[in-house]
Amino acid sequence: KTYARELARVNRDVRLLAQELRAAHDIRMVRDVDDGFFDPARLAQVIVDPLYSPPRMRIDTTEGLSNDTAVTFLIDNSGSMSGEKIQLAFLAAERLSFWLSSMGIATEVLGFTTEYPSIPSITVGRAQQLHHIIYKNFGARHTQKTTFHMAAMLQRGLFHNNCDGEAVLWAQDRLQSSGASRKILIPITDGDPSLGYKRDESI
């Protein structure tokens, strides 16, 4: 019951967010056109001359998101995200990807961590190899199979170190190659560094 209630709430919230992202961002008045509605600026002329037939005006809008938009969700899969945090991240990313995809927006869902936990004896440099995960790419439709693939982020043994700098550059490179004219990168993380680079505690 708790999961169903949370899923319903997330569905409602992310649907509203997706609609907000599609809200018009460019609104302008176009005057002196043949079709449209009455231009209030011409009211004085109509009062003075009842036979005067003023030109019309209309409102032109440009959608904030269109089919020429790509959205990447970059999910922190490090140790500090285990438990309830990764469950919420999964719900948010899966539902947002679903709703945006249903609106014709290309989405990609990525994750990042390291192959293994840190090695205590290593005090300088990178402790473990990066582990970058593609849960859904831009070319894939969002289906039940997509949800199944994304659910892999919930498995135990995945959560190790947070190397977010490299992950952002990786996600950015993939987003740039999407070919879309408008690109949006949405990181989902708790902000905990959780052992990226090892360093002297005095630094």
Helices and strands in order, then pairings?
Layout: H1 2-21, E1 24-33, E2 37-38, H2 43-48, E3 56-63, E4 69-76, H3 84-102, E5 106-114, E6 125-126, E7 130-136, H4 144-150, H5 164-176, E8 182-188, E9 197-198
Parallel strand pairs: 4-5, 4-8
Antiparallel strand pairs: 1-3, 2-3, 5-7, 6-9
Helix pairs in contact: 1-3
Brief digest:
By secondary structure, the chain is an alpha/beta fold.
Attribute tags:
disordered C terminus; elongated; four-stranded mixed sheet; alpha/beta; 203 residues; three-stranded antiparallel sheet; single chain
Question: Please, could you describe this protein's structure?
Answer:
Helices cover 32% and strands 27% of the residues. It has a 4-stranded mixed sheet, with helices on both faces. The two termini are 48 Å apart. The protein has helices spanning 2-21, 43-48, 84-102, 144-150, 164-176, and strands spanning 24-33, 37-38, 56-63, 69-76, 106-114, 125-126, 130-136, 182-188, 197-198. With 203 residues, it is α/β, with parallel strands linked by helices. The model is unreliable at 121-125 and 196-203 (pLDDT under 50).
